[in-house]
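Example 289.
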Amino acid sequence: MKTRRKPDWLKMQLPKNDDYVYMNNLVSKHGLHTICSSGKCPNIGECWGNKTATFMILGNICTRACKFCNVATGKPLPVDKNEPIKLARSIKIMGLKHAVITSVDRDDLEDKGASFWAEAINTVKKENPNTSLEVLIPDFDAKAELIQKVIDAKPEVISHNMETSRRLTPDVRSRAKYDLSLKVLKQIADAGIVAKSGIMLGLGETREEILEVMDDLLAVGVKVMTIGQYLQPTTKHLPVLEYVTPEQFKEYEKIGLEKGFSFVESTPLVRSSYHAEKHINALKIKKDA
Ligand code: SF4
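Predicted structure in complex with iron/sulfur cluster:
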């Protein structure tokens, strides 16, 4: 059944567990910045309890203006050369087992931020040799030499989100193209690194279109898929056309696993970094023939 009123299953509970409280105190005491807290992510209690958190690099102003995203658009500030070491130290202070790094799009930079990405990964690894890493990267306009810089830094997982179906991509994403995103993911998978991608539901996509995204991702070697509910950040963003039920999300998870993904995280409150610590094992999971 389709409904546009925010349903009960999207009401968020404040986390109360001891691990969360401990981490939250650390973050406040040291003035650390995570997307988990600044984005008021509903999964924060569980993720921080699992010693996983997400950080954004390359500033907080994006050169693109996707119609689902609440990050500010404009002319970004110059790159902070100390950001990689600050990030590495934040991860160390929090004692993270797994960290997720993402960034704004930096189409203003000559290499779109690819070298900075590589430096950030290398610095985090050097300072935190026991922390695994997932990097959620922009498309770098699908330029192979730029994506290769990130691959060469060898994070355990590289993700790049499709965000929505092929048909809806021009309405939802700015500049990014559906086939170029598939090309990015293929290069990652071909390099032998866990490739991961995600979509949001509730933007008007059909069931067939969701299954098409699954097939397209599998065809390029993606092993992990996340599926969550789109929530309209402000009235200037695209409206929610449907609140998909938890049962429908569960069904997509089942279909995705049957089709061949190693992991499908599919619930209304899933964000692309939810359960990220599990996904480093995606290449080890063999499907029955
Ligand atoms: S889902 Fe991502 S952003 Fe949300 S708490 Fe977990 S790691 Fe942080």
